[in-house]
Amino acid sequence: MNSTDLSRLAFAAPEPQPEWSPFFRGCAEGRLLIERCSECGHAQFYPRGRCIRCMGGVAWAETTGRGRIFSFTIVRVTRDPRFKPLLPYTVALIDLPEGVRMTGLVLPDDLSVTIGTEVTAGFVSFIDDAQSAFPIWRVSGFR
Predict the structure, then answer these.
(1) Nearest 5°: phi and psi at 71?
(2) pTM of the model
(3) φ, ψ for residue 105 (rounded to 5)?
(4) Structurally, how many domains does the chain consist of?
(5) Before 89, cis peptide (omega within 30)?
């Protein structure tokens, strides 16, 4: 991709799964959400509906929308036709200060991405559901 042209990120919404709905709606509102245990305070992502530490109830909590790259790869070949227009693209594991790790696309997807790079969440709507979106990550300072 190597640019801010997000028009090539045209993805249909995933099959509805109730535990993911608040996450995708939050992204559509420009908020990156994680689950936090209402009993022990443990933060977790991906959504599970119960705390993985104490089995307590969880509630959605907003994050700062910032993180740091833990690891990454540059994808140069794909068999999936939906991803071919994006080639090459960067996929990274992002550590959030709230204590969770997420996976996502990173912009710009060039050699400026390194382990430890600071990133900020951005959001792209699904092409068939304006009420839902997914996060993409931008190198801090990249527009």
Answers:
(1) -160, 160
(2) 0.86
(3) -75, 145
(4) 1
(5) no
What are residue 29's phi and psi, to 5 degrees?
A: -90, 5
Distance of alpha carbon 80 from alpha carbon 131, whole angstroms: 25
DSSP state letter for 13: P
Residue 12 domain-assigned? no
At 71-128, the pLDDT tens digits run 999 999 999 887 888 888 899 999 999 999 999 999 876 667 899 999 999 998 888 8
CA distances in angstroms from 23 to 5, 11, 28, 121, listed in the order given: 24, 16, 9, 13
Report helix, strand or coil for 24.
helix
Pairing of strands 66-75, 101-107: unpaired
Tell me, yes or no, whether 3 lies in a domain. Answer: no
| Per-residue pLDDT tens over the stretch 59-71 | 999 999 999 999 9
Q: How many CB atoms lie within 10 A of CB 124?
A: 17
Q: How far is residue 97 CA from its own chain's centroid?
A: 14
- The C-alpha atoms of residue 143 and residue 3 are separated, in whole angstroms, by 9
Q: Which domain covers residue 56, as residue numbers? A: 18-139
Strand order in the sheet with 43-44: 43-44, 33-37, 58-62
